[in-house]
Amino acid sequence: MLHTRSQASPLTLSVNGETRCVEDAAPDTPLLYILRNDFELNGPKYGCGLGQCGACTVLVGGQATRSCVVPAAAAQGREVTTLEGLGTLAAPHPVQRAFIDEQAAQCGYCLNGMIMSAAALLSRNPSPDEDAIRDALRFNLCRCGTHLEIVRAVRRAARYLQQEDAQ
């Protein structure tokens, strides 16, 4: 789908704790395009473009959101968090650390969506059982077959977060 910048106007978003502005954004431009093309954030991936695969998942107001089907204008006034905003190389978020520790990746294309969906789950349910984990990730597609490692990574991330809370 080609998006032209007709009816373009300035768009201000809060992304990863920073106020960012695009001078000429059409209101229906998908949030994913703004994040990747204008803000050069490469965590969210373009997968299906239909909101079905989960590769483009970001948090908008703490909710896992498919950024390929959400107009960027709908995110104004709400905090947008991408994979880059969860943690850093020096201090990864517990979910990122758990995915590394469990080696829960092969090609890695789905990881953005898996990690962002897991982070959203753990923010609302700090002790999910396996059914809750599988339910939260059910719309994130992975073709490599690392599903068992991904579920283990979410469980480990829950333990990491509980340990942080105990300190």
Shape descriptor: globular
CATH topology of the largest domain: DNA polymerase, domain 1
Number of strands: 5
Beta strand %: 15-25%
As residue ranges, the low-confidence spans are: none
Q: What's the number of structural domains?
A: 2
Major sheet strand order = 2-1-5-3-4
The overall average pLDDT, rounded, is 93
Major sheet size, sense and barrel closure: 5 strands, mixed
CA radius of gyration: 16 Å
| Oligomeric category | single chain
Could you characterize the architecture of this molecule?
By secondary structure, the chain is of the alpha+beta class. It is built from 6 helices and 5 strands. The protein folds into 2 domains: 9-85, Roll (Ubiquitin-like (UB roll)); 87-166, [2Fe-2S]-binding domain (DNA polymerase, domain 1), CATH 1.10.150.120. It has a 5-stranded mixed sheet, sandwiched between helices. The longest helix has 20 residues, at 147-166.
